[in-house]
Amino acid sequence: MATHDPELRKELDAILQTRTELGPEYEPELMESLLDKLESSVDQRVRRQLAEQRMQVARGTRPARRGGGGWGGPDGFAARFGLAIVSLVLAVPLSAIAAGTVGMPGLLVSWAGIVGVNAVHSAGVMGRLRRTE
User: For 69-93, what is each residue's pLDDT tens digit?
Assistant: First the structure.
């Protein structure tokens, strides 16, 4: 196992040595300790990278990324397409439950909710797109 963090490597070696000394009955505690160290290491790296990116944006050496527009942005096609797919997938069981429980009024209310959620999302997206143009 190759690691770029010498501290993490030392911790891993110490945990493995401790496991051989204490035996497998302490393995869950040792694994929990290892996972805590890994989580801490990952959190520290992410914080460092975010701080570096903020400094680059503040200095003007890197343009700030905007969330709007494009394929993957929150206003992009992927977000709209994802909501449409999720709505259609959830519409089937919601329709079955509503129609089976209440009948036609339940079916109409469930579809009104589905259409309403999609309409509100679409109106919000279109409003944000108009403001950015």
Answer: 444 455 567 777 788 888 888 888 8
pTM above 0.70, yes or no: no
Q: Determine the Cα angle at 46 with ends 43 and 48, to 5°.
A: 110
Which residues neighbour 75 within 8 Å (Cβ) at sequence distance 6 or greater? Answer: 67, 68, 69, 125, 128, 129
Q: Do residues 12 and 3 touch, judged by C-beta distance below 8 A?
A: yes
Under a CB-based contact definition with an 8 Å cutoff, are residues 91 and 114 in contact?
yes
What's the CA gap between 76 and 87, in Å, rounded?
A: 17
62: left (phi over 0), alpha (psi -120 to 50) or beta: beta
Closest by CA position to 9, among listed 32, 47, 41, 31: 41
Spatial contact of 125 and 76, defined as CB atoms under 8 Å apart: no
Exposure string of 46-75, with b = 16+ CB inside 10 Å and e = fewer, is eeeeeeeeeeeeeeeeeeeeeeeeeeeeeb
